[in-house]
From TrEMBL:
<dbReference type="InterPro" id="IPR050267">
    <property type="entry name" value="Anti-sigma-factor_SerPK"/>
</dbReference>
<feature type="domain" description="Histidine kinase/HSP90-like ATPase">
    <location>
        <begin position="24"/>
        <end position="149"/>
    </location>
</feature>
<keyword id="KW-0723">Serine/threonine-protein kinase</keyword>
<protein>
    <submittedName>
        <fullName>Serine/threonine-protein kinase RsbW</fullName>
    </submittedName>
</protein>
<dbReference type="Pfam" id="PF13581">
    <property type="entry name" value="HATPase_c_2"/>
</dbReference>
<keyword id="KW-0418">Kinase</keyword>
<keyword id="KW-0808">Transferase</keyword>
<dbReference type="GO" id="GO:0004674">
    <property type="term" value="F:protein serine/threonine kinase activity"/>
</dbReference>
<dbReference type="InterPro" id="IPR036890">
    <property type="entry name" value="HATPase_C_sf"/>
</dbReference>
<dbReference type="InterPro" id="IPR003594">
    <property type="entry name" value="HATPase_dom"/>
</dbReference>
Amino acid sequence: MAFRSGTDARAPDAACEALSLDIVATPQGVRAALARAAGMLSRADLCPTVQGCIELVLAEALNNVVEHAYSTSEGGRIAVRLDPRGETMLLELRDNGRPMPDLTLPEGQLRPLVGSGDLPEGGFGWYLIRRLAVRVTYRREAGTNVLQIEMPLGRQSKGI
């Protein structure tokens, strides 16, 4: 799975170079990728809140790939790229697992809570991703899932 540089890509900030990882689609692989990403983001000297939001969104996206795209297969791989682009950080994940249902991103709507003991298992990840990102896109090309999440690095953050 190779990354193609888009024609609209701006040069990475000198303090923060792009990071590309090829990880095994397991919880251990996700943890290792998150540790590497955290190191890269720390070197970028980002606001701790911005760094935390990027790490949270990346963790949610990677865990979704492991849990849903590769839930019935072993040995899957995920190509991960973090690419600073001016005021945003592009997170791109590519995998050859199962496609999203109907080739469509989940809406990311919160489910209503009925009572204090009725917290649903899951269902918050896509809400967080959509709420914290500037833009989220998904496509399937030649048997590969391509998820792109554009995260704000500064003033354009929407917050939770």
